[in-house]
Amino acid sequence: MIEVRDLKKSFGPQPILDGVSFQIEEGESLVIIGRSGGGKSVLLKHIIGLLQPDAGAVVIDGEDITHMDERNLIRVRSKFGMVFQGAALFDSLNVAENVAFAFRREKKFTEKEIAKKVSEVLEMVELPGVEKKKPSELSGGMRKRVGLARAIIYHPQIVLYDEPTTGLDPIVSDSIDKLIIRVTECMKVTAIVVTHDMRSARRVGNRIVMLHNKKVYAAGTPEEIFASPDPVVQQFINGEADP
Amino acid sequence: MTSFVQRYITGWLSGLGSFGLLFKEALVSMLTFKVAWRDLTYQIYFIGVKSQTVVLVTGAFTGMVLAAQAYYQFHQIKMDTATLALVGVSMCSELGPVLTSLMVAGRVGAAIAAEIGTMRVTEQVDALRTLATHPVDYLVVPRLLAAVLVMPILTAEAITVGIAGGYSVAVFLLDVDPVYSWHNMLRYTTIPDFSIGQIKSLIFGGIIAIIGCYKGMTCRDGAEGVGHATTEAVVYSSIAILIVNFFLTLLLQRLFHIV
To answer: Helix B141-168 vs helix B37-47: angle between axes, to the nearest 10 degrees?
Structure first.
């Protein structure tokens, strides 16, 4: 279980999060929505310990990771996989080396076993045969799929997605959504998806948390959120600019 | 004005602190053998093999110019055969390590800062951390170890071609007696001179790598941030090499009982 307790974070004089609290149960698929620059990605980075809060705590399976040093965080992070907004593939490595990165560092498997696992996971993200390509030779959607393959190859318990469909056309976005749903169901992982794509939020989440004014403004099932009479929630869902 | 000075001093001290922490983390990583050997091999190739041309050209022309300058001074007091001795001592203990390090700082320090800086701004460093890999183990340690291992070899090469270049200029161009010159060089260029140069180059290698890594790891966002980090890595490591060289000269000369 993941628990975020009264999280506060500022960058210089600019507050980004001001007392954000919520819980995520095992196996849940949570979507975090909110306006651009509203602190969604910052919140995600706190959950995996890439950022440290000014106040509050992030508790993963009963363990407070807020003030853990980097070496201890490595152990906690092995429970996580993360798909970055821009995929963040290592551009000096080819696709196979990117996907197998965690395995090569662990040195638990032979080269043959690693190649087999890479091929299996690339098959799962519908990208067979791209092992030798460099990240620069891939399209945006392909890069996100490789990023997902890299995040799930070692069977993490929790997968974090930072705006997985941003910058992709509707058809590729739809295929990424289906992939997230398939990975969550097949691998029985907890998924946390940050997005401002409402279509995507409705499809992949079984609970939605909306950030607004640096706090959790609304939370509920997709049906509850979409049926909410709250004008702020409706404005965001309908994508209407301030008058 | 006071707040500007306060901010400047706080920023400087905070930078020094994070530099110290990075260095400590790198040492801990090296002592606990968390070295990625494949990456270390690549870095040895990148820093050592790919710096050959620049180091050899620098070494050769420094030795040649030094021989010419020394000859014209010594010739006035009829000490032509001391030319190679001066070239030997200078190349081994000062010019070899310092000029090699400055050239490597320009080539390798900049490349390290640019590569790590780009990785940082494109979230590749964060990706490393999410893949349960400490960025210091993967990015800093191989570069630091490779630079420390390779710099003494590069310096020895620069010294060798520098002396060869100086010999050629002195003997073939300026008609200095080869036998006496060579004899004087061997007499006055001692093992401690060479050792001082090797110790210096080892430390300068560490300075180049750690400053390049630090500037890359702390680089600000965007292309401008990477540009700044690259420039600062070269400038800071060059200045650090020159300052540390002064103190090392004093310390090592005393240590080897030359003074």
So the answer is: 30
**B170 within a domain of the structure (yes/no):** yes
Range of the domain at B250: 35-255
For residue A48, the chain B residue with the least C-alpha distance is B130
Q: Which of A21-35, A228-242, B63-77 has the lowest mean pLDDT?
A: A228-242
Kindly determine whether residue A86 and residue B122, on different chains, have CB atoms separated by under 8 Å: yes
| A60: enclosing H helix or E strand | strand A55-60
| Alpha-helix residue ranges (DSSP H) falling in A67-208 | 70-77, 95-99, 101-106, 111-124, 140-152, 170-187, 198-204
Binned at pLDDT 50, 70 and 90, residue A104 comes out as confident
Contact A85 B123 (CB under 8 A): yes
Q: How far apart are CA B194 and CA B199, in angstroms?
A: 9
Which residue ranges form the domains of chain A, and what is each CATH number? 27-52+73-238 (3.40.50.300)
- Give the per-residue pLDDT at B34: 67
A86 close contact with B: CB closer than 8 A: yes
Q: What phi-psi label fits residue B222: left (phi over 0), alpha (psi between -120 and 50 degrees) or beta?
A: left
**Residue B127 to residue A102, Cβ atoms within 8 A:** no
- Which of A82, A97, A106, A146 should one mutate to test binding to chain B, selecting the residue with the greatest count of B CBs within 10 A? A82
A45-74 average pLDDT score: 92
Quote the pTM value: 0.88
- Residue B140, in any domain of the structure: yes
Binary contact (B133, A102; C-beta < 8 A): yes
Nearest residue on chain A to B124, alpha-carbon basis: A88
| Whether the predicted pLDDT of A196 surpasses 90 | no
Give burial (CB, 10 Å; 0-12/13-18/19+) of A3: middle
Domain membership of residue B29 (yes or no) is no
Domain count, chain B: 1
Q: Tokens 């690259």 sit at which residue?
A: B230
ipTM of the complex: 0.89
